[in-house]
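Attaching the record inline, Q. Sequence:
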Amino acid sequence: MTNHEAAEPAVRKVRLDHRQVRVLAHPLRLRLLGALRARSPATATTLAGLLDTNTGATSYHLRQLAEVGLVTEVAQPASGRQRWWRAAHDLSSWEPTDFDDDPDARAAIEWIQGDQVRQLAESAERWFATQHEWSPAWRDALGMSDVLMTIPPARLKQLEAEVWELMERYRHETEAETEAGTGDPQARPVQVFLAAYPLPGQTR
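Structure, as predicted:
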């Protein structure tokens, strides 16, 4: 059921359940949720223009997301018949093994992970096509890097947790500066991906 709420802040993080991942495994729904996390609140019309689709499609898929608690409707004064939406959470988390007992949810989370890789590739291609338009400071700051290491799974989980904690601290600090009006005028939204995969030919 859709929740009607005032401007109450979104919950920071949600651990996705089986039903949520099955609903989320859809290209438009993933992008709607991402757009709302970056630009809440927004109407279906605004989101349709942003994602190059139609209002009917965005309205339908917003309702699907709302049914599993991933987005919520927000009351806006003098908004007429427009319905305003926001993300119900800032971040989604899961462990792949959360869905080992549910083949449909496991297939859904595998599709979502694949879509994250596709989004990374699209982001990189957009950057390569437009990087000449950015300042030297941004060209040196943006991009990708990697490191090879030999590490057991427990330490890799610890590394990921520490890197995530660091990113969260930076995110919190920059959000606080923006809200206080003290942020750097050069600040722009960026998407940071965290990934770790085994080298080919490794034993399991």
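Residues 145-204 form one domain. The first strand starts at residue 4 and ends at 5.

More tomorrow.
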